[in-house]
Amino acid sequence: MRLPWLLPALLAAACDNAPSSDYPTSETGIFVDVTVDSAGAADATIGLTADNPALLEVTYLRLEGGDTLAMTIGGRAVALSERSLLGAYQYVGTASAVADRAPLVIAYDRADGQDAPATHGAVPDAFDLGATATRFSRADGLQLTFSRIDGADELVVSLRSVEGCFEPFTERGPATATVLAISPARFVLSPGGPATCNVEVTARAVAHGAPDPAFGRGGLVTLAQVRTLALTFDR
Prior knowledge:
Elements: H1 8-13, E1 16-19, E2 29-36, E3 42-52, E4 57-62, E5 68-73, E6 76-78, E7 81-85, E8 88-95, E9 103-109, E10 116-122, E11 129-131, E12 135-137, E13 142-146, E14 154-161, E15 169-173, E16 179-182, E17 196-208, E18 219-234
Parallel strand pairs: 1-4, 2-18, 12-18
Antiparallel strand pairs: 2-3, 3-4, 3-8, 5-6, 5-9, 7-8, 9-10, 11-13, 13-16, 14-15, 14-17, 17-18
């Protein structure tokens, strides 16, 4: 099951959920993750949370009592469905043909209490991901290339060896980068690993949106263009 990149840390601490109607908007936070692939297909995940000081945990909120979430991207409505992962409630949806800079708007409508109609952001521009070599060794390091990325705040690149040649790691850089050089030292070899491995590279051009000010606990809104690349690694 796919997990958005911002939610696993929250899930690790979660063991509590409650009806949204139990908490005013001033005690609620919102977390949004939208990813768009090279075909313009978008996956969106929304979570509502509240603090639980008694248990020192996050409480996940499930929509009840007439409270609703509505989402549009590029001016088109996105149908949302409820999903629960170990009691952590999320609201997920998909969209197609999502254009560069498509605006995102999420409205939290309350049956009783303060609405939060204007959580928002914009999708970064599409980009191309490449490498100067499709096969590389640890001694050589790796150089990744990117076409111009507009509308993003940062570039996040993750590398994973499918067969376990090296420990997975993440590099960060400015969204203006067109080249990312990864030094040999970043490839920490796994003891007893195979001589050659397939490598999965995932690059995210991330833009940060903003929660509606009515959310008293704030939140995090991220929208990302995501690209992947398959390479071969020699120890």
